Hints:
Order of helices and strands: EHEHHEHHEEHEEHHHHHHHEEHHHHHHHH
Number of helices: 21
Radius of gyration: 26 Å
Distance between the termini: 25 Å
Amino acid sequence: MLTPDAAPAHPVPVPGDGVLMLDPGRVVLAQLRRIHTGGVSLQLHADARQALRAAQSAVQRIVDGGEVVYGINTGFGKLASTRIPRERLAELQRNLVLSHSVGTGQPLPAAVVRLVLATKAVSLARGHSGVRPEIVDALLALANAGLLPRIPAKGSVGASGDLAPLAHLACVLIGEGEASTPEGTVIPGAEAMRRAGFAPFVLGPKEGLALLNGTQVSTALALAGLFQAENVFAAGLVAGALSLEAIQGSIKPFDARIHAARGQPGQIDVAAAVRALLNGSEIVPSHPDCGRVQDPYSIRCVPQVMGACLDNIRHAARVLQTEANAASDNPLVFSGAGGDEGDDEVISGGNFHAEPVAFAADILALAIAEIGAISERRLALLLDSGLSGLPPFLVRDGGVNSGFMIAQVTAAALASENKSLAHPASVDSLPTSANQEDHVSMATFGARRLAEMADNTAVVVGIEAMGAAQGIELKRSPGGLRSSPLLEATFADLRSRVAFLDQDRFLAPDVEAMRLWAGRTTWPDALLRLLPSHADASAATPAATA
């Protein structure tokens, strides 16, 4: 707990000082995106402390009354029937944390760990876990100080919670394990706690179990994947609009009446966004009777394909926002359940099963893969002079120069790789704990693979955008027709990153520059309005939430 004779090394933030106020049960995606980005301090809403203390008092009454309750004074999993004497309860909780700290692989990225700390604090602060408020304070203090537990990425099956990863987090709270400083130095867990202004905890009844149970690691990984999916989705729409301009494709398939006749919300919104991107283009009205009413599907069906991706992204966002606010450990404490203090219930259930997160991650994987798949097909279209009307492989002196030929091969390789990665993780299950935990979600892997998939798609979309800009410039004569103001601004941005390809050069740096372009978060308002985590941007502004 907080040492009484020493102030925290990093002062507790006060409202108005760049703080995001976390109100358990009401945290929104815009706030979670801001936590992922970094640069804000986190503070728990004052009203949450009462629920925390009520649940912790309920646990203490159970211990004092000698009642046998799973997770409080019993063993765990297959050992649930083993009663633990009172004098060994602290040992039980400590051993639980240490025995479950068996993760492997590279540490999770800092942005993901910030989300883990925040969502674990929010979950515990719902008041159903029975932990002291000081434990929640310590989680937020570590996040605010940039002292991030080193959590190995692998070792969770996404049921009974993210046990191994969360055990590595809990290790720091008890003065074990390791943490990274803002400078990247690895320090012992006890030192991290000291720098945050806390002494290592001696865990009370149920506190270790509450820390280990829960879906916060898989949820944090899936949220990170959601934010990356939003970025490449926006980039894919911009790249598609640029490609349409490069081949002088037909705007008619984006007519609002077509999409209203079908009624799919994402499709309607995507068509409107593409029209907004093209608004004011001089190229669009320059070829009204060019006969391009049957462009290839990768151009003509952008609203249908990307709209379906958007619907999936939105659904996943709703699931993940709910899960980020959830009480997902086990058992759950309901203090005063009968209306009177002391009339408590502790109910064992399965909220730690991460199936909702696994499904959300799987549909995000499908969306990310399809964004890249249709983008790669538009890139191939740009390179095919018979369809695009552009020089073969987007270079004037073909033969001597290969142009974008092999850049498209890279895009094809990554789009194909994503097909394998998109295989649903949620359909797999391996029993654990001597068949007590006989069906698991595999949500943690399902969410973790999203980062690699989004990175692959960012490369594909970035190469398409670079190729589309090349195509536009190949057709544009000095003083020639201009695209829309939004796309001309995008074109100028692309040219600030990569130069026109007049002859073959070392292209790998250009591909990397375009990957970074496709993974950015700054897009025209017409696109940001579509994205769930931007829908309530005011909630992510410290001044608005303090």
